[in-house]
Amino acid sequence: MPALRLPTPLAIRAAVHAAVPRPADLPWLVGYAVAFVIAHHVAAGWGGQGYYSLLYPAAGVRIALLWSRGPRLTLSIVATELAVQTAAGIIVPGQPDWLAAAVGVARPGLVYGLVVWLVRFVAARSHSSLGVAPMPLGLAAVSAPMAVALVALPWSLLSPELTGVVGLRQTIASLTGFAVGDLLGVLLIAPPLLWATQAVQDGRLSLHRPALRQLAVLGEAGVVLGVAIAASMLLAHIGLGVPATPALLAVAWIGLRFGRTMGWLAILIVAAMVLPYTASDMPLADRLEFHMSLASIVVVGYLAGSFADAQVRAQIALSRRDRMLFQAERLKTLRAMSVAVIHEISQPLSTLAIEAKHLHEITVSTDPDIAQTAAIIDRKAAALSTLVRRLRRFGGRSVDEPSALPVSALIETVSALTHAEAKAARVVLEIAPVDPDLIIMGQEIELAQAIVNLVRNAVQACDGRVTLSARRHDDQLEVTVANRCPDRRGPQPGMGVGALVARAIIEAHGGTLDRVTDGDGTVRATLSLQLVGAVA
Fold first, then answer.
1. φ, ψ dihedrals at 471, nearest 5°
2. In whole angstroms, what is the distance from residue 439 CA to residue 529 CA?
3. Could you read off the pLDDT of 310-336 as tens digits, one per residue?
4. How far is CA 218 from its chain centroid?
5. Residue 166: strand, helix, or coil
6. CA 194 to mean position of chain CA atoms
7. What are phi and psi of 371, to 5 degrees?
8. Does an H or E element contain 503, and which?
9. pLDDT band at 442 (very low <50, low <70, confident <90, very high)
């Protein structure tokens, strides 16, 4: 059984440092405090005995901030909520049970932060649909309200005076209302906030005159939703209740046809009709029924819209893959043509290099001009002969099998392939010295292609300098390509598949490829591979 490893003081210090808000986070926290106050007062319209509200928009603002800025802001968000509730008089230090009230205020924020961190942790390491957007956000949006309700259950049973409910029935009703209120607040508020934030960051938020096709989309969606609402009102008028099925089917149709944005607009219209009705005095059972039906409509609408958007992304990915396959076929034909040409010129070129070397040797003691000319011919012929030999190795079949590969030779090959391109782009390519004892097992051409792709991406995006280094880290080889990128909004040249190809090659060799951006804008692409002789 492996020994339990306790966190080191350095790791604890790093975790505490990460939890401290940065200067760039302060405007977000101030905005969150204002939004929390407004959303908290809005939620009071759907409150009742034993529960705060059946619609809690503040939960949506909370999870949107946690998802966009990261769970490291959990403690800051909790501190902000405590300060707001203290200023509002909900928490009065010194009074009886003020500590329990503070715990009740802090508990949802802590649970939300933990759920967001856990979902992100699982999604980052999952190879299933859990790691594909928007599944992680949907999982966090549904799990967080349920987790808060489950955590609150022991407190409700052990300290019923805090919630004002007595008995198992009232406790369950109170927690159900609590979960439904948070769920509706998250589903109605968080997605549009995240979409708007991402659109502003990407520069895609702009107003323009709607096109004819967009007007047709709005017309079709309006007709479908109007028919569903009319059907529900007709059934309610003849005494058959207010069924949610017509609105649910309409929202699902709109989401499947037109994506998440139109689906959310349909959800917003349905919510705008239901919520004012449930804000009036009515029995808790009826309120719960309406809000749970609304939650079902919201979930179905988001699922349908997300599926439609996923279909669009899949179609784009298929088109991109087809272009890659066409390019691969062209490269395959080019390789065959190159091998034939290289085979034809290799023999006469080798002879020319040998004769040029001999000419250089016999003209050393002759006229200086003749000796200098012979030296130039010898040098150029040797360089051309080396280039042809390298091309023959690339075109040969022997390199298709994995073999022991010195890292210094691999980096030298990458340098030869990328030096001219970097020079043409007026980029300085700095290559750090490589330990000659570093050896890996792999296919030379594929690994060289992976590193070349990373270097080319860096050359295209850098501000004039790219560094390439290879070093040992424990039993791993780490090859790092670093460059400093300016802020570019426009499209980058190429198909954008260089990094994808590099990642596929590295993962096929049992390695990993990570890309991080430092605070000064330096982008570091680091690939890790197992060194020969290390214990797997």
1. -150, 165
2. 10
3. 888 888 888 877 777 777 777 667 666
4. 31
5. coil
6. 13
7. -65, -40
8. helix 498-508
9. confident
**Are the C-beta atoms of 530 and 479 separated by less than 8 Å?**
no
Q: The tokens 């989401």 sit on which residue?
A: 255
Handedness of CA 156, 159, 163, 168 (dihedral sign): positive
> Is residue 112 predicted with pLDDT exceeding 90?
yes
Please report where in the chains the tokens 């967080």 appear, as a residue: 144
Q: How far apart are CA 244 and CA 248, in angstroms?
A: 6
CB 469 within 8 A of CB 479: yes
The residue that leads in pLDDT, 334 or 64, is: 64
> What is the Cα–Cα distance from 146 to 178, expressed in whole angstroms?
9
Phi-psi region of 404 (alpha: psi -120 to 50; beta: other; left: phi over 0): beta
Q: Could you tell me the two tokens for 239?
A: 């005494």
Q: Which amino acid is at 400?
A: D
Q: CA-to-CA distance for 99 and 390, rounded, in angstroms?
A: 74
513's enclosing H/E stretch is: strand 512-517
Q: How far apart are CA 40 and CA 54, in angstroms?
A: 12
State the Rg of the chain over Cα: 32
DSSP, residue by residue, 199-244: HHHHT-----PPPHHHHHHHHHHHHHHHHHHHHHHHHHHTTS---S
User: Left if phi > 0, otherwise alpha if psi is -120 to 50, otherwise beta: which for 310?
Assistant: alpha
pTM greater than 0.70 (yes/no): no
Token readout for 476 is: 């791993």
Task: Give the separation between CA 252 and CA 329, rounded to whole angstroms.
Answer: 42
